[in-house]
Design goal:
Elements lengths: L1 H41 L12 E5 L5 E4 L20 E8 L2 E15 L2 E10 L7 H42 L17 H50 L6 H30 L6 E4 H11 L5 E6 L4 E4 L1 H18 L3 E9 L2 E8 L20 H6 L7 H11 L3 E5 L6 E7 L6
Parallel strand pairs: 7-9
Antiparallel strand pairs: 1-2, 1-5, 3-4, 4-5, 6-8, 9-10, 10-12, 11-12
Helix pairs in contact: 1-2, 3-4, 4-8, 6-8
């Protein structure tokens, strides 16, 4: 800003100097006209003004110096316009003998007399770049006033603009993990600061949701981990109280069941942690029909599994994660089926569809979303399988969502029908 004010001050000085210079030229012309009129009227040159810094010369047609100011007596013509027969001309004249090192504003004024053309030379001081100390002082004072006023206005403007930032900074500094419910104030005007505040609040919303989800997860996990550990502790404690009456083979079998449940739970927790971390994994082209065939070939079958597979239905995804998804759906279906599980792969308008249908009791419509919550288990599920973790279906849905798809429970005449929908892989050309 100071640079702009300096440029303005220089332009003002230049304009003032040019104005003063034009005024001096006009005064010179006026003075020259007065002198020539008196010469016409009287036939002789009137007394020339002896003003400091001013020089005047009058030459007759024979180039003889007729009159001059004392500082220009016996001096050559002040400029080189002697050959110009007519017409007034102005020029800059520097380094006159009477004014060494100075520059003057010169005027050449030819006028006609009965004996020929007389020539009048006049020169006055050229104003310096600063015009005068008074003008320079006024310009400097104006420059300082303008810079000060601009700085004050800029400070107030920036302060008013950044005031919401200070408020948001203070509010963010007071937000802690223990209290993520606070939000930064949103400015009234629709500008960048408003968008910044809105983005900050959206980030806080996501952080609060994530922390709350982690808290619930930790609470549920601690509860489910406590159950097998408590069972193990009680079995060992009872065996040690009556070692002579303990059937160690039966006790070991009971402990093994609890350890296996604990191992399954820990495996699911690690799987969820990896999914929550969102660690990037490689994506390959996976044929769903081949995936189903491979997974079913590796599984021991306690009930009949019917396959209705459409070949060539491919998606881009992580084969290991997709196999885990399919395995969780098959585990759930086999636990609740009475005699048959049907696995279907089809294509629906650019979407790959995988369905797993069992012929069990099914899931009530109002409980279909509950089964996808972590550690949630319906009463019917607890009766049929007391060792479940309640994490299989939530993991399956999260894998589906990580692949840009959905996992839902659809209506069917009997049993539960899980439907996975994932966009098909683009066709190679």
């Amino acid at each position: 800003m100071a640079l702009i004010c300096t440029v303005v001050a220089v332009l003002v000085l230049m304009a003032v100097r040019e104005n003063v210079r034009e005024r001096r030229v006009r005064n010179l012309v006026t003075q020259a006209v007065d002198i020539t009129q008196q010469v016409h009227e009287t036939g002789k040159v009137p007394p020339l003004p002896d003003t400091p810094g001013t020089a005047i010369q009058v030459f007759d047609p024979s180039d003889t110096l007729i009159a001059a100011t004392p500082n220009m007596v016996n001096a050559p013509p002040m400029n080189r316009l002697m050959l110009r027969p007519t017409g007034v001309a102005t020029s800059n004249i520097c380094d006159l003998r009477a004014f060494p090192g100075e520059c003057k504003i010169g005027i050449y004024f030819p006028f006609h007399m009965p004996d020929g053309v007389w020539r009048l030379h006049m020169a006055v001081p050229d104003p310096p770049w600063y015009v005068s100390f008074t003008v320079l002082g006024l310009v400097i004072a104006g420059w300082m006033l303008l810079v000060g006023a601009t700085a004050l206005a800029a400070n107030r403007l920036v302060g008013s603009v950044l005031a919401p930032v200070d408020v948001m900074t203070s509010e963010l500094a007071e937000i802690t993990v223990g209290d993520l419910s606070r939000r930064v104030p949103v400015p009234w005007f629709h500008d960048e600061l408003r968008r910044l505040a809105e983005r900050a609040n959206q980030t806080l919303d996501r952080a609060e949701t994530a922390v709350e989800r982690q808290r619930r997860f930790a609470s549920d996990a601690s509860h489910d981990l406590r159950s097998p550990l408590t069972a193990i502790h009680l079995e060992i404690e009872e065996a040690l109280l009556h070692p002579e009456k303990t059937d160690w083979k039966t006790t070991a079998r009971a402990l093994l069941d609890s350890v296996e449940r604990l191992q399954a739970l820990v495996s699911c927790l690690l799987q969820i942690a990896r999914l929550d971390a969102g660690a990037p994994r490689g994506r390959d082209t996976v044929d769903l029909a081949d995936l189903v065939t491979s997974e079913l070939a590796l599984r021991p079958r306690s009930i009949t599994v019917t396959e209705q597979l459409t070949p060539g239905v491919t998606i881009n995804g992580d084969r290991l994660y997709l196999a885990r998804l399919l395995g969780n759906l098959l585990d759930n279906a086999e636990r609740h089926a009475e005699s048959n599980v049907t696995v279907t792969v089809s294509r629906d308008d650019g979407t790959a569809v995988l369905e797993v249908l069992d012929d069990g009791d099914g899931i009530p419509a109002d409980k279909r979303e509950i089964v996808f919550q972590r550690f949630a288990r319906l009463d019917a599920s607890r009766k049929k399988d007391t060792g479940g973790t309640g994490l299989g279906l939530p993991i399956a849905r999260q894998i589906a969502e990580n692949h840009g798809g959905t996992l839902t429970i659809a209506d069917c005449p009997r049993g539960a029908r899980f439907v996975l929908r994932i966009p098909c892989a683009p066709e190679k050309r």
